[in-house]
């Protein structure tokens, strides 16, 4: 490289860094402002709670933690909605402005709902841990009610705003996996039937209780998020086809459509529990599994241009699904174990797929 080229490269890098700095700084600044405003609202809310309600325990059904969780969910909804809408104008996300109103609305609702649920569950978990450390403590002072509520709401707004403003396909897949795992685990530990696992996984959603609402709601919101994930995925794949890395021009539309169907089927599993309609529930679960297997089997044809090792990994995932099916049919696996394994394989494959998609066309 000549001296002139080196200087030009340095200027280009500096210009790129300068161009990237304002949006990042703007997001951080707005997140701080959102946190400060929410903190003030939290302090006022804490004072009102302290004045209106009797002394409350840290955790439980009627507790300060449950009130804080609801408030955190409201703040997360506002911060998430504003932050996700505003991020459309950020570098790298301008393509979202071309989405139809319906598609953008579905994407916004799914992203916001996921952050609302995560904010509420995180708040409940924190106050549960605090209650185990401060056994018998009740919030009976306005000062501590105001401080705790301000901290909870401030952090909820700050973290939510940053998260929705920087969503990429990679982060979307991580968010999807985290949400489904956390929501399912919460349902498992709060279910009214401690022996649910002796029946099947879907048994968690058959009770008229908060735990079943959590389980079914996790599947429904997770399904919506999969459809949003499909939109981001199609955009990334379209860039690869334009560069000639993926040789099949129809691959973005094909894969994204299959993911949309998978998301709709996942939502259907939650919308129709087995105690309402076993047939529809099983059809939705089977449809989701068929889309997954279809993407694995048709991958070498649809995704021609992906790294060779990706297809090796896909065959491994397919072999694991078939092997698990054999173990289930031979009754080595219970139905619950089989469902857990298949779900783990699906979300594990999604993570592997996205990582290889991100490095497609690069040289070692």
From TrEMBL:
Region (Disordered): 1-21
Presence of the UniProt keyword RNA-binding in the record: no
Annotated TM spans: 30-52, 64-85, 106-135, 141-162, 174-192, 212-234, 255-272, 278-297, 309-329, 335-358
Keywords for this protein: Membrane, Transmembrane, Transmembrane helix
Protein name, UniProt field: DUF998 domain-containing protein
Organism encoding this protein: Microbacterium invictum
């Amino acid at each position: 490289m000549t001296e002139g080229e080196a200087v030009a490269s340095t200027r280009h890098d500096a210009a790129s860094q300068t161009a990237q700095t304002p949006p990042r700084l703007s997001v951080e600044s707005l997140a701080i402002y959102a946190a400060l405003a929410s903190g003030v609202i939290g302090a006022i809310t804490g004072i009102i709670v302290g004045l209106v309600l009797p002394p409350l325990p840290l955790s439980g059904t009627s507790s300060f933690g449950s009130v804080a969780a609801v408030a955190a969910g409201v703040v997360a909804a506002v911060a998430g909605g504003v932050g996700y809408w505003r991020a459309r104008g950020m570098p790298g996300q301008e393509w979202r402005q071309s989405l139809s109103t319906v598609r953008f609305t579905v994407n916004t609702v799914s992203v916001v709902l996921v952050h609302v649920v995560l904010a509420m569950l995180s708040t409940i978990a924190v106050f549960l841990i605090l209650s185990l450390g401060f056994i018998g403590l009740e919030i009976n002072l306005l000062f501590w009610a105001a401080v705790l509520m301000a901290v909870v709401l401030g952090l909820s707004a700050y973290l939510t705003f940053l998260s929705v403003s920087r969503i990429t396909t990679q982060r979307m897949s991580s968010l999807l996996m985290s949400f489904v795992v956390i929501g399912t685990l919460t349902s498992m530990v709060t279910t009214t039937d401690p022996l649910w696992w002796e029946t099947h996984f879907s048994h968690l959603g058959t009770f008229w209780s908060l735990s079943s609402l959590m389980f079914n709601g996790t599947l429904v919101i997770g399904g919506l998020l999969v459809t949003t994930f499909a939109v981001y995925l199609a955009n990334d794949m379209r860039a690869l086809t334009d560069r000639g890395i993926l040789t099949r021009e129809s691959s973005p539309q094909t894969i994204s459509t299959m993911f949309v169907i998978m998301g709709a089927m996942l939502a259907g599993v939650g919308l129709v529990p087995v105690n309402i309609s076993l047939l529809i529930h099983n059809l939705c679960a089977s449809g989701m599994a068929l889309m997954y297997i279809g993407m694995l089997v048709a991958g070498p044809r649809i995704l021609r241009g992906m790294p060779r090792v990706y297809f090796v990994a896909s065959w491994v995932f397919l072999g694991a699904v078939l092997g698990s099916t054999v173990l289930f049919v031979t009754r080595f696996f219970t139905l619950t174990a089989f469902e857990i394994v298949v779900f783990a394989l699906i979300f594990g494959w999604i993570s592997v797929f996205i990582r290889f998609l991100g490095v497609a066309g690069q040289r070692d």
